[in-house]
Design brief:
A hairpin with a 2-residue loop joins strand 7 and strand 8 (about 100). This protein has helices at about 10-25, 60-70, 120-125, 135, 150-160, 180-190, 285-300, and strands spanning about 5-10, 25-30, 45, 55, 75, 85, 90-95, 100, 105, 110-115, 130, 145-150, 165-170, 195, 200-205, 210-215, 225, 230-235, 235-240, 270. The radius of gyration is 21 Å and the shape is elongated. Helix 1 packs parallel to helix 2 (about 60-70), helix 1 (about 10-25) runs parallel beside helix 7 (about 285-300) and helix 5 packs parallel to helix 6 (about 180-190). Helices cover about 25% and strands about 25% of the residues. The protein has seven helices and 20 strands. It has about 300 residues and is α/β, with parallel strands linked by helices. A five-stranded parallel β-sheet has the order 5-2-1-9-20, with helices on one face. It has a five-stranded parallel β-sheet with strand order 11-18-12-13-14. A three-stranded antiparallel β-sheet has the order 6-7-8, with no helix packed on it.
Length: about 300
């Protein structure tokens, strides 16, 4: 009888893991979440995923991955996992009161970008508002863009965007950055990067695409409008590990900890994608880690009675 593998999450990592696991003779069940597909569901055109000579829409790419996994025998549970029990075999993943059991588990729940909480931000997401410069920076060639934030992520985004944009303005609510000194120095030295201090974004302007922002100076209360064509939110990410804390090891930021390649500290529980990777955060690297996790799970189950 085939061994059963539970995969929690249905972004590139989870779906790639399902494809490899199904081809490897397991019976993968993907707990895909109430909003399946991961962060690519919030992306418009994807140009940097290998195999597509023309851009593909993020949701379309995820739909194709899911169809491929289903064709190979993967089953899907389209709701959120609410709790887990990794204390004994078989492992249990609960969806409300219903328990799904597995001989191994891959955690591929990803991380969620932190947002400002503006209605206009959500409405214009994918229409000039982004949380990933490496994903979307190319679309802003010869345009003026804003980066919101003051940490390492914001400086990395701003520096990357200078490859394409004519002008990058960093907007920070304080009068000094939180980023590491070396990133600060690089940003300050770059002639394309400007800074607006003590400022917060009140609204992103535009009906069908970003046309500007309205900001307020937190010290003077003065409000002003800036024209731009892109807004990059760079205030950090939250790993989606809430239900796993106390069950697998996480670091001080909440990211899952890998002990060896894709293995967690619990034997038989593996991790893949942005749930541990806060450095690259790309669809292709998430997919690659999903492949590794599936192959590691297959090998683990082969040697388990």
């Amino acid at each position: 009888m085939p061994k059963k593998l539970l995969i929690i999450g249905s972004g590139p990592a989870g779906l790639t893991a399902a494809i490899y696991a199904a081809r490897g003779g397991l019976e993968p069940i993907v707990i895909s979440g109430a909003l399946p597909g991961g962060q690519l569901m919030l992306t418009t055109e994807v140009e940097n995923y290998p195999g597509f000579s023309e851009p593909i829409l993020g949701p379309q790419l995820m739909d194709e991955m899911r169809k491929q996994a289903e064709r190979l025998g993967t089953k899907f549970v389209d709701t959120d996992a609410t709790s887990v029990d990794f204390s004994s075999m078989p492992f249990k993943v609960f969806v409300d009161q219903e328990a799904h059991t597995g001989d191994a588990v891959i955690i591929a729940t990803g991380a969620s970008a932190m947002w400002l909480g503006l209605e206009s931000e959500q409405r214009l997401r994918g229409k000039g508002v982004s949380a990933c410069a490496t994903c979307d920076g190319f679309f802003f060639k010869d345009k003026e863009v804003e980066v919101i934030g003051g940490g390492d992520t914001a400086m990395e985004e701003a520096l990357f965007l200078t490859k394409f944009a004519t002008k990058v303005t960093v907007i920070h609510r304080r009068d000094e950055l939180r980023a590491s000194k070396i990133l600060q120095a690089r940003a300050f030295e770059n002639p394309k990067i400007n800074f607006l201090w003590n400022s917060i974004v009140e609204e992103i302007l535009g009906k069908d695409k970003v046309e500007g922002i309205r900001i307020t100076n937190v010290k003077t209360g003065e409000t002003s409008t800036i024209s731009c064509e892109g807004v990059f939110i760079a205030i950090g990410h939250n790993p989606n590990t809430e239900i796993f804390r106390g069950h697998v090891e996480v670091d001080e930021k909440g990211y899952a900890v890998r002990k060896n390649e894709s293995r967690s500290n619990v034997e038989g529980v593996f991790v893949a994608g942005d749930v541990y990777d806060y450095v690259y955060r790309q669809a292709v690297t998430a997919a690659a880690s999903g492949c590794k996790a599936a192959l590691d799970a297959i090998k683990y189950l082969e040697f388990r009675p």
